[in-house]
Amino acid sequence: MNVNGRPVRVDAGSSILDACRAGGVEIPTICHGPTMTPANACRVCVVEVEGSRALVPSCSRPAEEGMEINTDSDRVQMSRKVILELLGSATELDRSNASILTWLEKAGADTARFGPPEGPKTRHSPRPGHHDTVPIDNAASVHEPVKIEDDLYVRDYSRCILCYRCVDACGIEHQNTFAIAVAGRGFDARISTEFDVALPDSACVYCGNCITVCPTGALTGKVEFDMREEGSWDESAQEVTRTVCSYCGVGCNLDVHTQDGRIVKVDSPHDHDVTLGNLCIKGRFGWTYVQSGRND
Amino acid sequence: MDIRLLLDKPTEEEKVAVDALLGPPESAWRGGDYEPLDGRVAYGGHAAREQRHLLLPALHAVQDAVGSISKGALGYVSERLMIPPAEAYGVATFYALFRTDRSGGRVVHLCDDFVCSGRGAGEIASALDEAGVRWEPSPCLGQCDRAPAALVHQPGDGYVSVAPADGSALGADPASDQPPPVIHQARTELRLLRRVGVVEPTSLEDYTGSGGYDVLRSAIEMGPDEVIGHLESSRLRGRGGAAFPIGAKWRGLRQAAGGGKFVIANGDESEPGTFKDRVLMEGDPFALVEAMTVYAYATGAEKGFVYLRGEYPLAERRILAAIAQAKRAGLLGDNVAGAGFSFDLELRRGAGAYICGEETALFASIEGHRGEPRQKPPFPTERGVFGMPTGVNNIETLLAALAVLELGGEAFSAIGTQESTGPKLFCVSGDVERPGVYEVPLGTELDELLKLSGAIEPMAVLMGGAAGSFVDEDQFGMPLSFEGARAAGTTLGSGAVVVFSSATDFSPVLRRIARFFRDESCGQCVPCRIGTVRQEEALARLDARSPLGTEADERRRLDDLATAMTDSSICGLGQTAASAIQSAIRLGLPGAPS
Known about the structure:
The complex is a heterodimer.
Chain A: E1 2-3, E2 6-7, H1 16-22, E3 46-49, E4 56-57, E5 68-70, H2 74-90, H3 98-106, E6 147-148, E7 153-155, H4 165-170, E8 181-183, E9 190-192, H5 209-213, E10 219-221, H6 222-230, E11 238-244, E12 253-259, E13 262-267, H7 281-285, H8 288-291
Parallel strand pairs in A: 1-5
Antiparallel strand pairs in A: 1-2, 3-4, 3-5, 6-7, 7-10, 8-9, 11-12, 12-13
Chain B: H1 12-22, H2 45-49, H3 55-66, H4 71-81, H5 85-92, E1 107-111, H6 121-131, E2 135-138, E3 150-154, E4 158-162, H7 204-209, H8 214-222, H9 224-234, H10 246-255, E5 262-267, H11 276-283, H12 285-299, E6 303-308, H13 313-328, E7 344-349, H14 359-366, E8 390-394, H15 395-407, H16 409-413, E9 423-430, E10 436-441, H17 446-453, E11 458-463, E12 469-472, H18 482-487, E13 496-501, H19 506-520, H20 526-543, H21 551-568, H22 572-576, H23 579-587
Parallel strand pairs in B: 1-2, 5-6, 5-8, 6-7, 9-13
Antiparallel strand pairs in B: 1-3, 3-4, 9-10, 11-12, 11-13
Helix pairs in contact in B: 1-3, 1-4, 3-4, 8-12, 9-10, 11-12, 11-13, 12-13, 12-15, 19-20, 20-21
């Protein structure tokens, strides 16, 4: 097949995204995670496929022999830019992963063009298929109060772009716990437990595998969240040490993030063929004993 | 799979409603009383999880009985069907007719869409407020021929459509059946509508007495290949909006490998301004059952669904009755009509979601999920409902297929134009003297339809509903054919023809269309989920003469949104969400952004 006029060869079953990357062409992705089946929801990865009326999501569309792909046409650039602008107009993106932040800039997205976002409000239980008022001075947003329900992790849904990654990680992709799902419809859709009960009352097992797949910082460990809020979180000053979890015999690799000699976060490498980035509550959160009793 | 439930228990009434659908629970593992054996035996696994498709029927059972879905009821349904409660909640909060945020009780759903709001819906709302009757606004209820329309839900008694609605009468219990629709044309001209209002829709005997089941009999004599051959030579194209060649669709399903195929009748007619399928389903339900049987016979499907929008209670009763009678008469089930094939047909009710008319969303809904569409390919003939090869046809298409087999493919293709064959139903409403369903050969000029229905000083016509586009008098001469509509830069879409007189201010009409798409977006993809919101906000600001920047900036914003939504949304909803608004702007209709 051809990508931007240059021939590219990939194995059958590869996606258009795989083909583009094989051809050295960069495509932005948000909902597509390396360890997950594409949710196909964010649409920033759309490309032009000759013969197709609408643009095509490169992450989930299989590559076919003879396809002519254009990743940089005016149409693609326009959609990419507007989609990023829409996301930025409704959601706080400043703690997103580097790829999102880079692409916002690269696409020239003006996230303020739809007006200043509405302030936080409770988003629980709106009526599906109805909304009351349309703001004139603000742009409707997903901003809502931060959910802090325990000492392990924090849900800040003002940053949620509804990429479905956490739902899939909690459910069929990784954990098979199904504590959260998308509830509500349309712009009022949000990630929720049943009746929005607090996580400790839900089926959540605190594996934190949702945190590790979240691309926007909507889900973070409590320690990281607190440090970010007080402005002391500094990735450039952090060291990452790879080790093996000491709890059971599975042997999950841990990446222990330390700042100023203290553990601030633990996760697992996404390319690890045992964990795929997943851990259990003990591996991810059970490290505070390391620092307890220290009086420094 | 273990599921963890909240501690809330269902009330006796809720439990009875669910058990009436699912039968009594078989053990303590599934919501029953604890028996000593339950301590040693666990039930669940695949058998339990395969009941996921009963989620919507179970939620309907609760909603119907008590008027809302409580924590206890949702938990009980989850436990019975082995569905994680968070997922069940996600489904319950997707559909507008399910309510999880209030207590139950009687409610009036009042249509405030663009046809009904021009026909006194506002006055009715005031009357209901004054009388203290609880009501909620609703998108188009598909009763535009007798606007204004309402749908009354009395928990325990079910839903009843009331149209035309009268504010003072909506407080009382309405009659459950409505009179048949007024057909304004001479019966001799009609083929698709010929039984509507003439043949008793609840009697199989009357149906067979009027030529019913002749087609099935001759189809069985011909054999599947010849049946599909007739559809191919008829050049019939789908009537749901996409105009796909039906012969190819049926042939594709017939050739799909393996068993376990499904056929589905798409009766989720929710396009604002569209009501033709309702008229057919209410007025000629046996024809639908027969057409589905022929569809199954020709394609090798053994199981079929009629997916009906939740706001069509009369059609539901009529189709259920027709299915039951056909079963009793051996026309459904094992060995249909003694011809050696089996076909089981089941009705599934939607629950207030326009998006479920999109075929992949419809599959998700039948399977017990949120009605979220998915990317195609794979196409339904390859991977449809429950992952099996599936054919989906619109209701009118199925009745047109019967007409093809009555007339023969060649004769059918002589009706209409070269590219657009056969008769077609149009739903004419708005500023006309005789609103209703009209059956005309494709290729008939729009002007003639406007004359037939008595259009009142028409300034613009909305073709194809909210997902369609406006045309003005320059195009009133256009032939109503697929190619004619294309040449005029519009679409026949669902067959909605909504007439707006020269007195119309289009600003509220466009605002209502923008609101509709925002409310009906499933929320899955970004361009549609947020784009429809920004589109509505821009129109609101222009209306309030408070543009962000200049009016030209707002126009550019609307244009960019339209481009992104059309180009990069997953499904047809987002792809058409800007179509009508953009057409109004292009035509410079009064009240449209200029």
